[in-house]
Design brief:
2 strands; alpha+beta; 34% helix; single chain; two-stranded antiparallel ribbon; 83 residues; globular
């Protein structure tokens, strides 16, 4: 087994740190995340990259991913002004 870190592990650490730095409640930590990114190759071909995790290693179950994405799209977003 390789000791190299995966892209998901790097992204997990970045998400965790962003939440730690921008948290409204001290001690918050990430329990799950989903990332969708569009990429374009030099040839002009486009595609989506999808990643998710709860701990930087295991992918989230499909129903958890779907719930996070649905809530991100359709639920009101909390802001500093609405808290």
């Amino acid at each position: 087994m390789s000791n190299e870190r995966t892209p998901v592990a790097f992204l997990h650490d970045a998400v965790q740190e962003a939440v730690r730095l921008d948290s409204r409640v001290e001690g918050n930590y990430v329990t799950g995340w989903v990332c969708v990114a569009e990429s374009i190759a030099p040839t002009g071909k486009r595609w989506l990259t999808r990643m998710s995790s709860s701990d930087g290693e295991e992918e989230l179950p499909a129903w958890t991913r779907a719930g996070l994405l649905h809530d991100a799209l359709f639920a009101p977003w909390e802001t500093a002004d609405t808290d």
